Amino acid sequence: MFFDGYHYHGTTFEQSYRCYPASFIDKPQIESGDKIIMPPSALDRLASLHIDYPMLFEVRNAGIERVTHCGVLEFIAEEGMIYMPYWMMQNLLLQEGDIVRVRNVTLPKGTYVKLQPHTTDFLDISNPKAILETALRNYSCLTTGDSIMVPYNNKKYFIDIVETKPANAISIIETDCEVDFAPPLDYKEPERPTAPAAAKGPAKAEEVVAEPEPKFNPFTGSGRRLDGRPLAYEPAPASSSKDKQPVVANGNGQSSVASSSEKATRAQGKLVFGANANRAPKEAAPKVGAAKETKQEEQEKKDEPKFQAFSGKKYSLRG
């Protein structure tokens, strides 16, 4: 490529310019798209080249090697200057008056793009895909890694270009492009209830000491006489302790401790016959006074007149 004083001759256009935001001129529509305003000399140079239409450009910040792509809106800027959207200057980390390199390029038509909104507010729009389709009509190309601005209802929504196919920079002019959304940057998944943390080390099983159930002991109640008179003695309370050995009276009237063999033969709640402890005491001999009373009663019964049949008075039916 060579310059003859008026035009560049060749197939590539490349020039350095100082950049300024679109707020410097009365062109507010620049902020809602990706097009820049170039000087008239750029149009003359491009017209002399055999370039592809629509005109697409690579804009590079040579200081930090940041690159984006854009289209052109008009050729009315002052010589040596270009005006670009402020969000594009932010992507390239440019300040007012910084130098950028502008070069014409040819980009493939896009088939797929993955977008990621910065905030969940964009998804709250009734039909975000329709709004995005309308907004992208003001864009000529997309570059992976850029953040574009979509205005809607007096609010600005910023969206990251996460992925583009078939290349890192694609043309979206007159093409059918599949659009996919990634979760917004500020999206947080709902917290799930966490299970309580397991205790460190093996858990010690709590030993539950079972309380001994009360067992049935027969004949442990108090005795009562049928005639209502008080008892001459009180029965000893039954002992529930297993450690105590029962005291048994032997035939000689002396108390002795039952042997372990006798314990084995005596099941609780049962009567065991044949053991010394269960022998009934011998009946006491009848007292002399009681014998006399018995003879008296028998004598009184003998003296009572016996019943004699037909021993009453006679009466006549005639009167």
Give your account of this protein's structure.
The chain has 319 residues and is of the alpha+beta class. Helices cover 14% and strands 25% of the residues. The protein is built from five helices and 16 strands. The chain has helices at 40-47, 86-91, 128-135, 260-265, 288-303; strands at residues 2-3, 8-9, 14-21, 35-37, 56-61, 66-74, 81-84, 99-105, 112-117, 141-143, 147-152, 155-165, 169-171, 178-181, 247-249, 255-257. The strands form five sheets. It has a six-stranded mixed sheet. A four-stranded mixed sheet has the order 11-12-9-14. Strands 1-2 form a two-stranded antiparallel sheet. Strand 11 (147-152) and strand 12 form a beta hairpin. It is rod-shaped, with a radius of gyration of 60 Å. The termini are far apart. 17% of the residues are buried.
Please outline the helices and strands.
Layout: E1 2-3, E2 8-9, E3 14-21, E4 35-37, H1 40-47, E5 56-61, E6 66-74, E7 81-84, H2 86-91, E8 99-105, E9 112-117, H3 128-135, E10 141-143, E11 147-152, E12 155-165, E13 169-171, E14 178-181, E15 247-249, E16 255-257, H4 260-265, H5 288-303
Domain Ubiquitin fusion degradation protein UFD1 N-terminal subdomain: 13-108, 109-184
Region (Disordered): 184-319
Keywords: Ubl conjugation pathway
